[in-house]
């Protein structure tokens, strides 16, 4: 059952922008994403609270909770739900709808830096996935890329899958073991290729970017693979929507001094921008 959410915007009390909905009908993926984020934020919820927050029926709420529980993303309780130890890091399929306008702006800005013949690298993540999609559209519409294809080095299975159909893009994948939550190839095999290649620009997606400490992700195996990528890139740009700036995560990828710049959206906090620029990080917005 789908219902139109009244008004142009609705903010769930005590919740961040991930729970702001436009006045339109949510599809199932969007509904599941918003529900999972709500559970992660509040730690536990009753069905009645979900019904009120998402404007769905109790039956729909229970079906969605049962589905998330079968995916081991939440734990069902009597009359509601609570987080489980794995739900803090959501699989990518539940993250792709967040801040989509901001991610698109970041992706467009990143692709503006790519020239015909460049070798670029993309790690996994929602923002780098958006960059891959934008790059595919750009090279298809720009004749200059037909004679000088772009080479994309990536450890993200989904990004490679999206770009491999483009004749203007040569896709090079690292080795490794696929990680279901991010679609990234990780482990010792993932780093073997890097000493043998050179990358013009690496676009580095992240879970959090500290204005003092550097670039972070949730998983130590991903961090290791991403560090190897940064080490062979002539330029590295962190790419993240502004909600990730000022945030930390478990595993550090690199320090700020490894970055040529940060590409983000125009909602970046003025104090955060000033702190990053004071640390010699060039902040690029669009």
Task: Give the topology.
Layout: E1 9-11, E2 20-22, H1 28-42, E3 44-46, H2 47-54, H3 58-70, E4 74-77, E5 80-83, H4 100-111, E6 119-122, H5 126-141, H6 144-147, E7 150-154, H7 157-163, E8 169-173, E9 177-179, E10 184-186, E11 199-205, E12 208-210, E13 214-217, H8 220-231, E14 233-239, E15 251-254, E16 261-264, H9 270-278, E17 283-285
Parallel strand pairs: 6-7, 6-11, 7-8, 11-14, 14-16, 16-17
Antiparallel strand pairs: 1-2, 3-5, 4-5, 9-10, 12-13, 13-15
Helix pairs in contact: 4-5, 5-7
Walk me through what this model shows.
- The structure is a single chain.
- With 286 residues, the chain is α/β, with parallel strands linked by helices.
- It has helices at 28-42, 47-54, 58-70, 100-111, 126-141, 144-147, 157-163, 220-231, 270-278; strands at 9-11, 20-22, 44-46, 74-77, 80-83, 119-122, 150-154, 169-173, 177-179, 184-186, 199-205, 208-210, 214-217, 233-239, 251-254, 261-264, 283-285.
- The strands form five sheets. The chain has a seven-stranded parallel beta sheet, sandwiched between helices. It has a three-stranded antiparallel beta sheet with strand order 3-5-4.
- A hairpin with a 2-residue loop joins β4 and β5 (80-83).
- The protein is globular, with a radius of gyration of 20 Å.
- The protein starts with 8 loop residues before the first strand and ends with a strand.
